[in-house]
Amino acid sequence: MAVKPLEDRILIKPIEAESITDSGIYLPESAKERPVRGKVVATGPGKLLENGKRAEMSVRKGDTIVYGKYAGSEIEVKGDTHLILKESEVLGVLD
Q: CATH number of the domain that 42 lies in?
């Protein structure tokens, strides 16, 4: 199953946080927080403007982004958890 986002939506694969701290302590599943970083898998064509043209997306496939902790909607694609979120929910792009 392939998912093609519509309008200004982005499909991302969340990057899980490390299960071990810098000091070597292992974190149980219950102590882990929801991921806030992810890799862009697909983007929509962009928001439709009043003049009939599409706004250019500010992220591209392959970008690593930061998003809000509770942003987006979870879906399952080929057995993996992905998120679909609006471009406005993206907080930044990591280099």
A: 2.30.33.40
Q: Which domain holds residue 88?
A: 9-94
How many whole angstroms separate alpha carbon 19 and alpha carbon 22?
A: 10
**44 contacts 7 by C-beta, under 8 angstroms:** yes
User: Which residues, 6+ apart, have CB-to-CB distance to 10 below 8 Å?
Assistant: 40, 42, 43, 44, 57, 59, 65, 84, 85, 86, 87, 90
Stated pTM of the model: 0.80
User: What would the two tokens of residue 75 be?
Assistant: 């879906």
Spatial contact of 7 and 46, defined as CB atoms under 8 Å apart? yes
What's the chain's average pLDDT?
Answer: 87
Distance, in Å, from the CA atom of 42 to the CA atom of 93, rounded to the nearest integer, reads 15
Q: Which residues contact 20 (CB under 8 A, 6 or more apart)?
A: 26, 27
pLDDT of residue 26 exceeding 80, the answer is: no
